[in-house]
Design goal:
This protein is α/β, with parallel strands linked by helices. It contains 11 helices and 27 strands. A 5-stranded parallel β-sheet has the order 3-2-1-7-20. Strands 9-16-10-11-12 form a 5-stranded parallel β-sheet, covered by helices on one side. The chain has a 5-stranded antiparallel β-sheet with strand order 23-24-27-26-25. Helix 1 runs parallel beside helix 8 and helix 9 runs parallel beside helix 11. The longest helix is centred in the C-terminal third of the chain and has 15 residues. Bound molecules: flavin-adenine dinucleotide.
Length: 413
């Protein structure tokens, strides 16, 4: 492949890694990276943590900066969104009217914060958090008008923003529609740990509750809640999940489901010239029923690299272990594998008070792990999951038995 032109839509984490890997690993044709944002590709996890807290500067988030893009001979179109794909002509149209020819097209358009149909939600003091610009606006709001903040949504981003707002001395209330926090990704005991963590910081957590309406008042905002109460606050942050930016693909008749663009193990859509990666892509993942989207830093990076390798002709299938992490107050939470539906569970408490919860199948295969301040031990726990190793629950729970030893024994068996 010497002259093929690869066009990547979405200059986020997956798009940035796809472009960089293509060039680093030998693509000699042209590469064009199209991004709706004006920033070079950057990492989003610090947006709800270090950026809000003022512990990191925006430059520190960059994955590949403008100078590196130039030296890698990667053309960019930043500040221009792609609006249409002509599959027959292999042509992409941008908002600035430009038409880009492609030989291979990679869709890394990520997602956006889900809107909720709540009357009054379009007020300027109601925020969402997806981009660096959102984070800088929110930081400004929280640091200059610190009062009471209502967070709608008790998932990871909602909890992280709530923790940051508390650390910025705001009063915080979280309302969550479900009857526990982070219901989709953790077991009920971990939801309870998270709830206690936030309650211990004087955050009010209202479960099984949603917001019916938002009204502007002289003092700020008033939220009418489904539990009959109303809440006066200065800012509202909506963190109610992600909607895939898959409109381009849908308009071009690529196969999508409710969660995004369907791809196979080589990141290919149903059009052999078009690929997808990152939050916008859904794939069949071992251990989950049906198609799923892995909304995480790790997946965006790994699938971005995998799509580049697939275009370069490698035939190694991308088979990720789901992984994510979160930081809230002094808790560092790490998750690998599948934690729901485990037949057997085991919990190890380390001398520093950190914990590892293991989720095993009926035949003692370690299918998932959740670490909370688990330190270096998490690395070995993750290896057990990634390699699908077997271990006895009693041994996993015993902090006197090194996990490294359990992994080695299982490999040797
Ligand atoms: C606040 C926040 C905190 C997070 N924290 C964590 C964490 O702690 N741990 C973790 O594992 N994961 C975390 N994540 C998730 C992780 O950051 C995402 O999974 C990852 O960024 C997905 O990468 P992506 O490239 O698929 O999408 P994105 O990084 O969202 O990039 C997509 C890009 O495509 C652009 N785009 C969209 N449509 C078009 C178009 N038509 N034309 C051109 N460009 C377009 C968008 O503007 C965007 O720049 C967090 C996410 C957020 C928002």
């Amino acid at each position: 492949m010497t002259t093929d032109r690869v066009v990547i839509v979405g200059a986020g984490q997956a798009g940035g890694w796809a472009a960089r890997t293509l060039r680093d690993e030998g693509h000699q044709g042209s590469i064009v990276l199209v991004g709706a944002e004006t920033h070079a590709p950057y990492e989003r996890p610090p947006l709800s943590k270090e950026i809000l807290l003022g512990l990191s500067q925006p430059e520190a988030l960059t994955i590949v900066d403008h100078a590196a893009l130039e030296s890698l001979n990667i053309e960019t179109r930043f500040g221009a969104a792609a609006v249409a794909i002509d599959r027959e002509a292999r042509q992409l149209e941008l908002t600035n009217g430009e038409q880009l020819q492609y030989d291979k097209l990679v869709l890394c358009t990520g997602g956006r914060a889900r809107d909720l149909p709540i009357p009054g939600i379009d007020h300027e003091r109601v925020h969402t958090l997806r981009s660096l610009d959102d984070a800088l606006r929110l930081k400004q709001a929280l640091t200059t008008q610190a009062g009471h903040v209502l967070v709608i949504g008790g998932g990871w981003i909602g909890l992280e923003v709530a923790a940051s707002a508390r650390q910025l001395h705001c009063g915080v209330t979280i309302v969550e529609f479900a009857d526990r926090l982070c219901q989709r990704s953790v077991t009920a005991d971990v939801s309870e740990v998270l709830q206690n963590l936030h309650a211990s910081q004087q955050t009010k957590v209202l479960l099984g509750t949603h917001v019916l309406a938002i009204k502007a008042t002289e003092q700020g905002l008033n939220a009418e809640l489904s539990n009959g109460q109303s809440l006066q606050c200065d800012h509202i942050i909506v963190a109610a999940g992600l909607l895939a930016n898959d409109e381009l693909a849908r308009q071009a008749d690529l196969t999508c489901n409710n969660h995004g663009i369907q791809v196979d193990g080589l990141c290919r859509t149903n059009d052999p010239s078009i690929y997808a990666a990152g939050d916008v892509a859904v794939m069949e993942t071992a251990g989950t029923a049906g198609w799923s989207r892995l909304e995480s830093w790790q997946n965006a990076q790994d699938q971005g690299m995998a799509v580049a390798r697939a275009i370069l002709g490698h035939d190694t299938l991308y088979r990720p272990t789901p992984m994510l992490w979160s930081q809230q107050f002094d808790q560092f939470i790490q998750i690998a594998g599948h934690v729901h539906g485990g037949a057997i569970t085991a919990m190890r408490t380390m001398p520093n008070g950190g914990t590892l919860r293991f989720y095993l199948t009926a035949d003692e295969v370690v299918a998932g792990v959740i670490g909370m301040n688990a330190g270096r031990d998490y690395r070995f726990a993750k290896q057990l999951v990634e390699r699908g190793l077997r271990a006895a629950a009693a041994e996993l729970a015993d902090p006197g038995i090194p996990l490294k030893q359990l992994a080695a024994a299982s490999l040797a068996a």
